[in-house]
Design goal:
- It contains seven helices and no strands.
- By secondary structure, it is an all-alpha fold.
- The radius of gyration is 35 Å and the shape is rod-shaped.
Length: about 240
C-alpha cells in the first residue's frame, strides 16, 4: 500500500477528476456550457500537479509519460482554439470570398491539430492505464480496477475526438469522458485506507513454553521406575534411593 503522503496526492487527483466529470456533464447547459467546460479544463490541468508530486517518490515512467503527453495534448488544443478564434475575428468585415477562404484554412488547421492532439492524448491515457494495471498491489483492488477502466475509457474518448467530424462520435466521446472521469474520481476514496501490518504469529517455541511443565524425572525411582510421592529419599516399592 502507498504511504500517507502519496495516497493524499492520488486522493486530490481523484477529487479534481470528480469536478472535471461534473463540469463535463454540465457543459450541455445553454449559454453556460463553455464556461463550465473551461472550469473543468482548468481542474484537469491542476490534477497534473498531483500526479507530478506523487511521482517524485514513485518514479514511474508510465506516470511521467501520462503527465507530459497530456500536457502536450493540452497545448495543441489551446493552439487550435486560438487559431479558430483568430480566424473568426480576422474574417470579420472581409469580402465574402476572402471570408470563405479563411474559414476553409481555419477548418483544415483545426482538423489537423485536433487529430495530433487526440493521438497524443490517447497515448497519455494508455500510459495511465498501464500504470494502474502494473501497480495494482499499491491500491485497494476495486479502486485500481476503477481507475484502470476509467483511463481506458478516456483513451476511447480521445479517439472519438479525433473522429469529431462525425456527429455520432462527438456524443460517444462525451459519454465516455463522463464515465471515465467519474471512474478516476474513485481515487478520492484511497485516503480512507491505512497501511496495516499483519499480526505476527506466536512462534511454536513460545507456544510450548506456555504449556504445563513436564514432570521431572526425579519424581520416579531410578531403579524400578515407580512414582515417588512426598519428600521421602527412598522408593517405597524397592527401597532404592531416589537420587
Amino acid at each position: 500500500m502507498l504511504n500517507v503522503d502519496i495516497r493524499n496526492k492520488f486522493s486530490e487527483f481523484g477529487k479534481k477528476m470528480k469536478i472535471v466529470a461534473i463540469m463535463t456533464v454540465l457543459a450541455i447547459i445553454p449559454y453556460f456550457g463553455f464556461i463550465l467546460s473551461f472550469i473543468g479544463f482548468i481542474f484537469a490541468i491542476m490534477a497534473l500537479s498531483d500526479i507530478r508530486n506523487a511521482n517524485y517518490k514513485l518514479k514511474q515512467s508510465s506516470l511521467e509519460n501520462y503527465r507530459s503527453k497530456y500536457s502536450i495534448a493540452i497545448y495543441f488544443r489551446i493552439i487550435s482554439t486560438v487559431i479558430s478564434g483568430a480566424g473568426s475575428f480576422y474574417s470579420l468585415g472581409k469580402p465574402f470570398f476572402f471570408s470563405i477562404l479563411i474559414f476553409i484554412l481555419m477548418f483544415i488547421s483545426f482538423i489537423i491539430i485536433n487529430i495530433i492532439a487526440g493521438a497524443i492524448e490517447m497515448d497519455a491515457w494508455r500510459s495511465l492505464t498501464d500504470f494502474f494495471n502494473q501497480n495494482r498491489s499499491l491500491f485497494p483492488t476495486h479502486i485500481a480496477l476503477e481507475a484502470s477502466e476509467g483511463s481506458d475509457k478516456l483513451r476511447t474518448a480521445a479517439l472519438m475526438s479525433v473522429l469529431s467530424f462525425l456527429i455520432i462520435t462527438i456524443l460517444i466521446g462525451w459519454i465516455w469522458q463522463i464515465v471515465g472521469y467519474f471512474k478516476l474520481a474513485k481515487l478520492e476514496e484511497i485516503i480512507r485506507y491505512t497501511e496495516t501490518t499483519p499480526a505476527t504469529p506466536v512462534p511454536s517455541t513460545q507456544q510450548v513454553s506456555l504449556a504445563a511443565p513436564t514432570p521431572s524425572k526425579n519424581n520416579f525411582c531410578p531403579n524400578c521406575g515407580a512414582k515417588i510421592t512426598g519428600e521421602g529419599k527412598f522408593c517405597g516399592k524397592c527401597g532404592s534411593s531416589r537420587t
